[in-house]
Amino acid sequence: MKDNLIEKIFVFDLDGTIAINSKIENSIIVKLNQLMKNGHMVLFATSRSIRGAKAVLPKEFINNILLLCNGAFVLEKNQIVLSNYIEQKTCINLCSFLEKYQIQYYLELGNAVYVPSYVEHPFISVLKDEGKDENIYTELFNISNKAYKISLLEPISDVVQDKLDKLCSRIQYFVHSDNTVDIVANNCSKWKMLKRFLKSKNITDYKIIAFGNDSNDIELIKNANIGISVKSNNDTLVKLADINIVDYKSESIINAINEAMKI
Q1: What Pfam families does this protein's entry cite (predicted)?
Q2: What is the pTM of this model?
Q3: What is the rounded distance in angstroms from the CA atom of residue 90 to the CA atom of residue 97?
């Protein structure tokens, strides 16, 4: 099979990067459409799951390649085509532990979600509203779906930190700037899944231009041909980025795209 040649691949994180308060400005939408019309690939890589990405993305981008739950799975034309899920035994072990200590969390299952009955957090209302047509489980042992991400809705305590460290060979986690925590399978990241996806499509000749703002974007920004940070509070990310945007203005995003096109 002949390798596919794509000049530039643009990878955009959503929240805090091109989506502010769950909204993407129209001028950015116009620019992304322009990139695609010019033959470039536009992908979205986010910690959100299917329901969350669909709540933010305009309809014309829903069929773009989506790297979801920090690279735990890839959605292509509304179908999961690649995945890296948390081993069931590890997931049950960790979830049972979190419930023992009444930790506020939920479990991403692709097209379903598990929320312990005791969890009371404002985000759960948002999650349920976004996933009105999805199954919402409340009993851990009724779950048969693959688990892609465990999201902690509170800062890591010492007891949770100790547990995560003991499971370091099986899972990894990202602490976000708002102190929420995403737990995924070991060797799971936006960058690793992006590379795996491109290989599966025999796409070999390309330049990756990536936009991100948080800890789960570090590997992506580090390895991209051009890494762009957007108003990031993460010192490591800022140092690794080739271009740093210091505000959320749509024109700043567009200017960075234009600048990256010249490099």
Answers
A1: Hydrolase_3 (PF08282)
A2: 0.92
A3: 11
